Amino acid sequence: MKKRWLSIMMAAAMAATMPAAVMAEEEGEAEATAVTTVGPEDGTHFEMWSFVDAHNEFYGKMVELWNEQNPDKQINVTFSTYPYGDMHNKLMMSLQAGSGAPDMCDVEIGQFPNYTGDDCPLYPLTDALAPYEADCVTSRLDVYSKGDGTRIGVPTHVGASVMYWNAELLESYGLDYKSVKTWDDYTALGEALKEASNGEVYLTSVDTGGVDWMWIAMAEYGEDWTGGPDGEPNVELDSVKKMMTMQKQWLDDGIAMISTDGHVDLEAGFKNVSEGKIASFPKAMWYMSRFMNYMPEMEGKYDITTIPVFEEGQKNSVGIGGTGTVITQQCEAPELAAEWLTWAKLSKEGESYIWSVLGFDVCNSALWFDEDFAFDESNPYNTFFRCKPYEVLQELANNDAIGTVYTTSVSPTLNDYMCTTTLNEVFEDGMDIDEALAEAQEYLEMELM
Amino acid sequence: MSKVKKLLFSQKVAPFVFVLPFVLSLLIFWAYPLISGVIMSFQDINFGNRTFVGLDHYQKLFKDKFFITAVLNSVEYMFLTLVLMIPIPLLLAVLMESRLTKAKGVWKVIMYIPALTSVVISGMLFRMMFSEADGSQMNQLLAFFNQAPIAWLKTKWTAWIALLLLCMWRWTGVNMLYFVSGLKAIDTSLYESADIDGATAWQKFRYVTLPLIKPTTIYVITISVYAGLAMFLESFMLWNGNSSPKNIGLTIVGYLYKRGIEKNDLGYACAVGMVLMVIALIINIVQLVATGTFKKEES
């Protein structure tokens, strides 16, 4: 009898712990990879999460500087860095559950639409941002706002898209990339490069796992497939069709290759860039940091210019990617947090760190024309490339050439469909462009019902 | 003190005390999530605000082609894993029990080690092995046979080779151990008497081993059906995220995760979960009835 009970007990205990064990093994605990605390212990305490270690390092520096300048408003912040997916999931779950959220948190722009709903418990930052609003690139503040215009996130950078050229490679074939103004010029350069290199070097690589090219096309024609904050999504746009048709032609003609693993911001992409398999590609300015971190051997070889246009006089850049930092309603001292956060990310002190260490194009556009700020020779980004990156930014600003494509509640679905299905169908399988886009549109409409 | 003791030693109460941990864990970790999952599948959930939407989620589900792709992928994957993961481990188990096999312990350990490695790491290794880059292991192998490199993870059948290999590499040892323990329970005198009757090795396998190992086989099939339908992590790791080209690697649980976690639509995700549960239940009940598990044991 005793034995039987014992065996039942054992069985019960095993059965009870089995799901837990399986869960623990399968999911893996979301452990922070780094936790640091900065500031005096008697200061107001905040918790802050990010998915990029470098961001937390930057915030830590800004806490120290703030405490030096504001002896009456000392703060003490604990920073935790989690992997990208884990952090966003944890934040979402803690906001859904109503407890356990950090006071401040980085949110990647692709995830941001999940937080722009009416009931989302984020602290409004409109007032705290007001002092910086006039100097900032407005579209960057808009992307981190609710439908009614309430600001809820502080931007990190503009992410203006520019053209990266392997100048050394192109010059070795005696080709001139600087005179490229339109996509027709660009295609002609591709033909010349194909001939000169015997098809060894591709002019560029076409993405099947990213929508940057489409964004550029939309910005050039002033279109937006999300329809903007109030409109209806529509992917069957002339700009998108033009870009896809042109890219497909490049692939057919052997001018371009398909980006290995989907886009150039991955290990395989870095390899194609650094080995000179492709000679140019358009990407946001933050891609400069990828050169610094993953392709240091490219120093002095690459040049940056503005992106070609379909027709003269069009805009030729768009803000791509980014991180908005939010303050949750679970924060007990949100005014102080907001004051520090906006200062840290948008004041000149903060922006100079963002530019010189993180290598981003800062949102405070007044600083783009500040010679000491923009062209400081001690900033490694100013010596790495064949031009000073902010010269390109100045050119964009002078021509008012940076367009806007919104990230709205439909964006995650839209991007997902494009990157998993449409772009693959068109570029890998050779499906008709109109047909593929009509299929995408149909899916989006079904989604929104 | 004495009262507590009395209570614990009471013949009537003691059983309940002993099963209490199990009952509690069942209620808290199984019944509650299940019931609340059913309720949530009829609701829209937005940061603590819940509104009932009736059957909306379910109506949308059956028009959602991503969902249909996910269901087909999961069922296909389950079926293929059954085809591969029952006969092969069974065969290996029989080999393992054969008198002719040397160093059995070593083989068992080697076969079992993959089950102990993390899917995160093995998925990453498989992703690199099957990368579309020229230098990946598989493409180098192709180059050795003078074949052009393939974008392995971009077309369905090549990607599924990777997916199924990952599954086999990982779980063959586990299933084999189940079968080994089943084989150990078979009385050796049966084989001896079969020998006396002049049975061949195949006849012994067909008429002695297979019928007697049936309970183990049923158990392995039941867990494999669920494991196949609930597959997520392998695909997530192989494609470095939840998005695969043309959704060739999207599974039901992957879609649930995409909806519930990535797109913050827990209500819809719960509806997806309910469909998964119903499919798994139907397949398993059919299978259990067909194999006679519910029949009274013949005495």
Set out the fold topology.
The complex is a heterodimer of chains A (449) and B (299).
Chain A lengths: L1 H26 L6 E5 L5 E7 L2 H17 L5 E7 L2 H14 L6 E5 L17 H8 L4 H5 L11 E2 L5 E6 H6 L10 H15 L6 E3 L5 H10 L16 H16 L2 E3 L8 H8 L5 E5 L3 H7 L7 E4 L11 E2 L4 E5 L6 H13 L1 H11 L12 H4 L6 H4 L4 H10 L3 E2 L7 H17 L5 H16 L1
Helix pairs in contact in A: 2-13, 8-9, 12-13, 17-18
Chain B lengths: L1 H8 L4 H27 L2 E4 L2 E4 L3 H6 L3 H21 L1 H11 L6 H13 L2 H11 L7 H8 L11 H29 L3 H9 L4 H12 L1 H16 L3 H6 L13 H11 L3 H25 L9
Helix pairs in contact in B: 4-5, 4-9, 4-12, 4-14, 5-9, 6-9, 9-12, 12-15, 14-15
CATH homologous superfamily title of the largest domain in chain A? Periplasmic binding protein-like II
Q: Identify the CATH homologous superfamily of the largest domain in chain B.
A: MetI-like
Helix percentage range of chain A: 40-55%
**Domains of chain A, number:** 2
State the end-to-end CA separation of chain B: 47 Å
| Biggest chain-to-chain interface with counts | A-B, 42 and 41 residues
Helix/sheet category of chain B = mainly alpha
SS summary, helix count of chain A: 18
**Oligomeric state of the chains in view:** heterodimer
How many strands, what sense, and barrel or not for the largest sheet of chain B? Answer: 2 strands, antiparallel
* Content-based structural category of chain A: alpha/beta
The mean pLDDT of chain B is 88
Radius of gyration of chain B: 24 Å
